[in-house]
């Protein structure tokens, strides 16, 4: 994703988004629309691969979906009734076309294309082993590791090769893949990354979020289960098969999908993301009340939680900060003079609302704290009498290795400072976070089950649900792993 205009890398970066279509004459056009609905998950690059009955056609571009895939000529080059697509951001490295997905290769079984949302925690370890055995990599993405594992698997059938590859990887992933005759979807054994199944008449669809179905008038059928591989070879009920190659275990979806990543109008785990975020705000108001006059969200991600906080507290909800949605690419790499303007490139204080008021500012998270500090300062400069910061997630104390772009632990504000020190750093009159149990209550639970946690919440708890082979190898011998990881 583009550097957002915190200018200090102080925001969590969205996941990538994937979409797939089987059995529709306008598969690529539907894919482009689906990717447009998933644009919030990655604004750095987009790609679509389609099969026209004779050959695979692949278009990959830097930039937004609408910049390239709404043009008639581009869609005409992607004829066929099977297609997959991807919107991307990267957690490390620069944006280069060879890292843009989907990836395609000719295997012994025929053409194969794949797109990936997530991150493999043993991707670099596997990459090193593959390179040592003679594999040649064209990108720096861990997704290409899966492609090589499929190619090297000792099986005749493609689905068996695919499952063999999945059994070797660890981490969080949602995958869509295609051959001449198949659309395949897969979700990691814990269901960390989301993947949903839909239908448009007899056409089967796969997507990262339900909003991708809404835009094309399709029906949400169900979530792909944790550890499930779905293979679509035809239209209608008889055209889909499910495989469960992993031992059964409870799912642990990423809790940040509810806090930040998913669009608020999506449905995840049978729950409205919007309603969950409002519930987080209501619980935050009970856990961390403030003597104030108005509740103001940091747009856009703080809006639902601020609505819930206002409802519970009885204080009025006000748009005290206005977001500029039209800051263009001119400012991706701003000059130092422009950089000094900080968050004002993206947000502007609404003085008429803020002046003389005691303000409760609601945001979804604090990472390094530099953006929060600038926003507090901006609200004060607009005349606010007091600024009380309330965060609708617990303190982020640990980095993520499953696809979220978080800094190292040394750079996380909450990992290295007490609440009082954080409060002083952002220069707020008070700072409070929702509790871990509070988040779980917003999701309909009585609290966190420490013996068997219901969600992947390591950023708050340090409880990583999978082995971290790459991280452990780096700590043991940093020279043993190439500095090439570029997450999907």
Explain how this protein is built:
With 488 residues, the chain is α+β, with helices and mostly antiparallel strands. The protein has two domains: 17-252, Glutamine Phosphoribosylpyrophosphate, subunit 1, domain 1, CATH 3.60.20.10; 270-461, Rossmann fold (3-Layer(aba) Sandwich), CATH 3.40.50.2020. 28% of the residues lie in helices and 22% in strands. The protein is built from 18 helices and 21 strands. It has helices at residues 27-37, 65-68, 72-76, 123-132, 143-152, 158-166, 211-214, 256-261, 273-287, 303-313, 336-339, 351-354, 370-381, 413-416, 419-426, 436-442, 458-461, 469-476, and strands at 17-22, 45-51, 56-62, 82-88, 103-107, 110-120, 171-178, 183-187, 196-200, 203-207, 219-223, 229-232, 240-243, 267-268, 271-272, 294-297, 321-323, 347-349, 358-363, 386-391, 430-433. Strands 3-2-4-1-10-9-11 form a seven-stranded antiparallel β-sheet. Strand 14 and strand 15 (271-272) form a beta hairpin. Helix 4 (123-132) crosses helix 5 (143-152). The chain is globular. The protein starts with 16 loop residues before the first strand and ends in a 12-residue tail after the last helix. Residues 1-8, 328-334 and 481-487 have low confidence and may be disordered.
């Amino acid at each position: 994703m583009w550097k957002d205009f915190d200018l200090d890398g102080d925001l969590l970066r969205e996941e990538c988004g994937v979409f797939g279509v089987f059995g529709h004459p306008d598969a690529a056009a539907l894919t482009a629309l689906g990717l447009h609905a998933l644009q919030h998950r990655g604004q750095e690059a987009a790609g679509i691969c389609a099969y026209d009955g004779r050959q695979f056609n692949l278009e990959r571009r830097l930039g937004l979906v609408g910049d390239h895939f709404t043009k008639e000529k581009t869609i005409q080059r992607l004829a066929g009734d099977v297609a997959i697509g991807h919107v991307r951001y990267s957690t490390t490295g620069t944006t280069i076309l060879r890292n843009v997905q989907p990836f395609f290769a000719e295997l012994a079984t025929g053409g194969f294309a794949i797109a990936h949302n997530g991150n493999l925690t043993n991707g670099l370890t596997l990459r090193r082993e593959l390179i040592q055995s003679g594999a040649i990599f064209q990108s720096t993405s861990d997704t290409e590791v899966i492609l090589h594992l499929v190619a090297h698997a000792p099986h005749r059938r493609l689905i068996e090769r695919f499952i063999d590859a999945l059994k070797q990887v660890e981490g969080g992933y949602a995958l869509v893949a295609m051959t001449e005759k198949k659309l395949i979807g897969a979700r990691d054994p814990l269901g960390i990354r989301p993947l949903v199944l839909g239908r448009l008449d007899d056409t089967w669809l796969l997507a990262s979020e339900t909003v991708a179905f809404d835009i094309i008038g399709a029906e949400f059928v169900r979530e792909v289960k944790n550890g499930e591989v779905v293979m679509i070879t035809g239209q209608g009920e008889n055209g889909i098969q499910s495989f469960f190659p992993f031992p059964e275990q409870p799912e642990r979806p990423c809790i940040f999908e509810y806090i930040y990543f998913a669009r608020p109008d999506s449905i995840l785990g049978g729950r409205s993301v919007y309603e969950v975020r409002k519930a987080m705000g209501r619980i935050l108001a009970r856990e961390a009340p403030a003597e104030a006059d108005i509740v103001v969200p940091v747009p856009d991600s703080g809006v639902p939680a601020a609505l819930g906080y206002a409802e519970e507290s009885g204080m009025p909800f006000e748009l005290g900060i206005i977001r500029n949605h039209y800051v263009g690419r001119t400012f991706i790499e701003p000059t130092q003079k422009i950089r000094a303007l900080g968050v004002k490139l993206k947000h502007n204080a609404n003085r008429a609302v803020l002046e003389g008021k005691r303000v409760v500012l609601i945001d979804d998270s604090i990472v390094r704290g530099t953006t929060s500090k600038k926003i507090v300062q901006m609200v004060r400069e607009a005349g606010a009498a007091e600024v009380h910061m309330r965060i609708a997630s617990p303190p982020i104390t640990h980095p993520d290795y499953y696809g979220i772009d978080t800094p190292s632990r040394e750079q996380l504000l909450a990992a290295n400072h007490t609440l009082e020190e954080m409060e002083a750093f952002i220069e707020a009159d008070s700072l409070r976070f929702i509790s871990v149990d509070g988040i779980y209550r917003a999701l309909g639970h009585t609290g966190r089950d420490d013996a068997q946690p219901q969600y992947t919440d390591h950023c708050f708890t340090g409880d990583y649900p999978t082995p971290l082979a790459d991280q452990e190898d780096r700590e043991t011998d940093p020279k043993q792993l190439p500095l090439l990881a570029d997450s999907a």
